[in-house]
Each structure stands twice: as C-alpha cells, then as structure tokens.
Amino acid sequence: MEGVGFVGGSLGLGNRSGEVAARCGRTTVNMGAASVKNRTRRVGIVDTVKEQLDKSTLAFALPLEGYTVKEVSKLRGVIPENSCALAVKNTLFRRAVADSTWEVAGDLTKGSNLWVFTDEADMKATVEAINKFNKESKKEETNGIRGGVMESILYDAKGVDALSKLPSKQDLYQKIAIAINSVPTKVGRSINSVPTKVGRAIKLATEEES
Fold first, then answer.
1. pLDDT tens digits, residue range 139-154?
2. What is the pTM of this model?
3. Long-range contacts of 17-24 (CB under 8 A, 24+ apart)
4. What distance in Å separates the CA atoms of residue 209 and residue 135, rounded to the nearest whole number?
5. Contact by Cβ (8 Å): 86, 52
6. Which one of 14, 18, 75, 127 is least enclosed by Cβ atoms within 10 Å?
C-alpha cells in the first residue's frame, strides 16, 4: 500500500504529494524528510488535522483498506477543491480531536481510515463525488462512508448522506429573501380584495333582509 497516503505512518502521500499538501494546508511538515524527527512530525500531523477541522463543517471517514494507490489518488482528485482527504493514523487523529467539539469522531477510529474534511458549501458535492466514485469503482460495499461528525454529533453513513442533502445557509438565505420580497405583493392583493368581499357580503345581507 505504499503511497496510499498515511499521514504519520511509514507511507508517503504518493505521486500527488505536492497537490494534496497544498490543498490540505500541509505546508510546514515534510512527511518524507529523513531529517524530521518522529516527534516533531507527529506534532505537525496533529496540528494539520486540527487546522482542517477548524475550517470544516463536516468530517467523515472511509475505510482506507481496499483502495489501491491509484484509486486514492483519483478519489482525492474528484472531490471539490476546498475539501481535503487525509489518511491519518488513529492514535494521531484521536489526539487531534481530544477535548474538542470533534471528540466523538474518535469512535470511528477503527481500522485504517481516509478522513474527508469539507465545509458547508461543499458538503453535498463532496459526498456525492465520493459516492459516485465508489459506485463506479465497485467499492460501495468495502469502502462506503463509515460515519462522520457535525456540530459535535456522531452520524452513521445514512446520517452523513442526509446531512449532505440539507440546504446550505446560503440557500436558506436566498429562500427567505425571495419570501420576504413576495410579501408586499401578497399583502397588497389581499388588501385590494377586501372591499370587494365586504361589498358582496353587504349585498347578500341586504338581499336576505328584503
């Protein structure tokens, strides 16, 4: 599995290390440099995960085992530019989420994981891209989403999929704006219709009395 992308293990980031490092903000730690001591490297990895979590709305895990080096490379290429996929050793990931709002993600640290970090705007596109990739690669059974965390809540695979389909804040704001803009028209129509309705009611009442 050399090159698959374990961060913090004996594996590098494969032949796309520069691109992945740039996307995931790993600009200060060179995982393959022999001169970097293990302890310093581990600290850098934990900091990198924390940085990703700080700017993410949703973080979810996929089983890493079952993917080839080429498949992991392709998967990283199909997710949105602002999303990030990192394979992190469980011990380091648990250290990164300890005493934070992401701590419940530690429950997903079983086996080897490929962690995906995404913000609200790209949640839907990221999950859809990964699901499509797994379907086309026939990896739905072996490498489907294990679960994820959003706002301190742990979700299973179905929960993550459901979260990705929720409207974003921007979508909600647009709907509210449209609704507000339509209010004056509706109110105006209602007001204009009042005299007619009142007139009809008075006419009917007068006819009944006569």
1. 999 999 999 999 999 9
2. 0.69
3. 19/76, 20/76, 20/84, 20/85, 20/86, 23/76, 23/81, 23/84, 24/48, 24/52, 24/84, 24/85, 24/86, 24/117
4. 75
5. yes
6. 18
